[in-house]
Amino acid sequence: MADQPNRGPRSCAIMPAPYSPCDFFIVITATFQRLYVFVLLDVGSRRIVHWNLTDHPTSEWTIQQFRNGLPLDGSYRFLVHDRDGIFAPAVDAALRSMALQVLKTPVRAPQANAHCERFIGTARRECLDWMIPLNERHLRLILAEWMSHYNGERPHSALGPGLPYDPTHQTAPTGHRIPATHRVVANARLGGLHHHYLLEPIAA
What we know:
Number of domains: 1
Shape: globular
Low-confidence stretches: 1-10
Oligomer: single chain
């Protein structure tokens, strides 16, 4: 099957400025197919930079995800990953060729990759624990909608709270009074599992 821009094994995170951790997580479908989700996360903004999924992660596939997801401006100097066998020497060699220094987490120390682990927990609690994907295509559709919600609509308290796509735009409390010229509009996400609320001007 042709590689598509949003696939992968466990989960990956990119921290502020030069530091970028990485990881994978597993999702089981209704037919007990095992799929691996790969996510690249900017830790400073909490923004998901890149994600993808596959049923068979290989070194070549993983290297291609870094090529597709890492910015070309050299923003990151270090990439952190655990000691999973998918991160073969060829993966580290490819990362070094991208001018990245590879840092491996200690053995059995998930807290050393805390931002990725927290993201994986969020993805499960807010999305995957509530939905059973039928197959790879269905999982891709679910994650595409949820990732968009996560990046552009879900406020993060660590950002002020702000949104990952625009962390400088912080939510300001307005109390319970809605301006007479506006109304609240709710847009359902994932069939109503989540909602995005907006103030919309009332047409004259």
